[in-house]
Amino acid sequence: MNKIINHLPTAELQELDAAHHMHPFTDNDALAKKGVRIITYADGVTLTDSEGMQYLDGMAGLWCVNIGYGRKELADVAARQMQQLPYYNTFFQTSHVPVIALSAKLAELAPEHLNSVFYASSGSEANDTNIRMVRHYWASKGKPNKKTIISRHNAYHGSTLGGASLGGMAGMHAQGGLPIPDIDYIDQPHWYDEGGDTDPAQFGLERARQLEAKIAELGEDNVAAFIAEPIQGAGGIIIPPATYWPEIQRICDAHEILLIADEVICGFGRTGNWFGSDTLGIKPDIMTIAKGLSSGYIPIGGSIVSDEIAKVIGASGDFNHGYTYSGHPVAAAVALENLRIIEEENIIGHVRDVAAPYF
Ligand SMILES: Cc1ncc(COP(=O)(O)O)c(C=O)c1O
Predict the structure, then answer these.
(1) Which atom of ligand 1 lies nearest, measured to the CA of 121?
(2) What is d(CA 252, CA 23) in angstroms, rounded to the nearest whole number?
(3) 47 and 89 share one domain
(4) For residue 313, which phi and psi values (nearest 5 degrees)?
(5) Are 114 and 237 within one domain?
(6) Are residues 98 and 140 in the same domain?
(7) 0.70 surpassed by pTM
(8) What are phi and psi of 85, to 5 degrees?
(9) pLDDT tens per residue, the chain (359 residues)?
(10) Rounded distance, CA 193 to CA 198, Å?
């Protein structure tokens, strides 16, 4: 590939960045004094900065570059799609080939009862969709009070008003008047940090049963859903004890609480299966997807929902929700090509059989 090398010297780029670019989750003054690192090139698992220094990208961008950098196929597909149909909306009784093909592919890959996709451009937006969708679902079934969504302290579900409210990050709630109403929290299943002398299996059950206690406190008729990452990513790569998820599943089923698995990090191979729900034996009603869906090459996210939810939402008139870029044709085409590569190159098998044993 012909690299772009005629950029400004590093110091000038750093100065311009400090003057005009506000970084997410960053003390911008401190960064300006230090001087930002400028990444100019990436290939495979290796990043190169503007000084020619190379780094092993252990975090895969932001847990999203699942197939690695430098896959020309994705660039080619994007270029072709931009020339054929760079944009059209999916609001007004229209669709297009990439979004149809991607939706069918996701239905094939997802657990068998999840067959319908509502698109967004990020995980945060998709979780905002989930808030509105589960509330609208219960209202459509004549239960408008089933509104509260239970999440976990220290969870991460995004940075929009809805996403950050679903998340349980104290630092985020401290800024900007969060959380929004009708979100509640239980403790995370972090045995290593919080388990003390309790046996992990017992601890997993105790943390899961906090959900049952919270449902009892709020009243089953007021709770719409429970949301959680199969394995908490941003919170600290927290793998719950093996007893945790089966108990959560039992509680959600017993109390008619929808289960939202936030697969934004766990999805698309990271746990050695297509989804973290497959690895941990979860049967969710909705899965939030983003990141690895396109390996981060282009923004796209969404919610894959159960047949039951799709049926109820479908039969309840207009669902007054959507984004200009819901099902964007270029993003959909790139995502589809990314899924082809993951499948044809057996990347998930490699994660499971080669990489995982090392970890
Ligand atoms: C589990 C989870 N959900 C949602 C999000 C938000 O996704 P995005 O940053 O694409 O809005 C993230 C981002 O890291 C995440 O890890």
Answers:
(1) 10
(2) 38
(3) no
(4) -65, -40
(5) yes
(6) yes
(7) yes
(8) -155, 90
(9) 678 777 899 999 999 999 999 999 999 999 999 999 999 999 999 999 999 999 999 999 999 999 999 999 999 999 999 999 999 999 999 999 999 999 999 999 999 999 999 999 999 999 999 999 999 999 999 999 999 999 999 999 999 999 999 999 999 999 999 999 999 999 999 999 999 999 999 999 999 999 999 999 999 999 999 999 999 999 999 999 999 999 999 999 999 999 999 999 999 999 999 999 999 999 999 999 999 999 999 999 999 999 999 999 999 999 999 999 999 999 999 999 999 999 999 999 999 999 999 98
(10) 11
| Amino acid in position 114 | L
- Cβ(50)–Cβ(7) below 8 Å: yes
From residue 115, give the alpha-carbon distance in Å to each of 7, 102, 137, 246, 315. 46, 11, 16, 23, 16
Identity of residue 265: I
Same-domain pairing of 208 and 309 = yes
CA 81 to ligand 1 centroid distance, Å: 26
Q: What is the DSSP string of 93-137?
A: S---HHHHHHHHHHHHHS-TTEEEEEEESSHHHHHHHHHHHHHHH
Which of 127, 229, 237, 291 should be mutated for ligand 1, with most atoms under 8 A from CB?
291
- The range of the structural domain enclosing residue 199 comes to 72-358
Distance of CA 26 from the midpoint of ligand 1 (Å): 17
Q: What is the residue whose two structure tokens read 């197939």?
A: 67
Structural domains of the chain, count: 2
Within 6 Å (CB) of ligand 1, which residues are found?
Answer: 122-124, 127, 156-158, 163, 229, 233-234, 262, 264-265, 290, 301
Q: Say if CB 71 and CB 59 are below 8 A apart.
A: no
The CATH number given to whatever domain includes residue 234 is 3.40.640.10
Amino acid at 38: I
Protein residue whose Cα sits closest to atom 4 of ligand 1:
157
Residues 80 and 229 in one domain: yes
**pLDDT score for 2:** 73
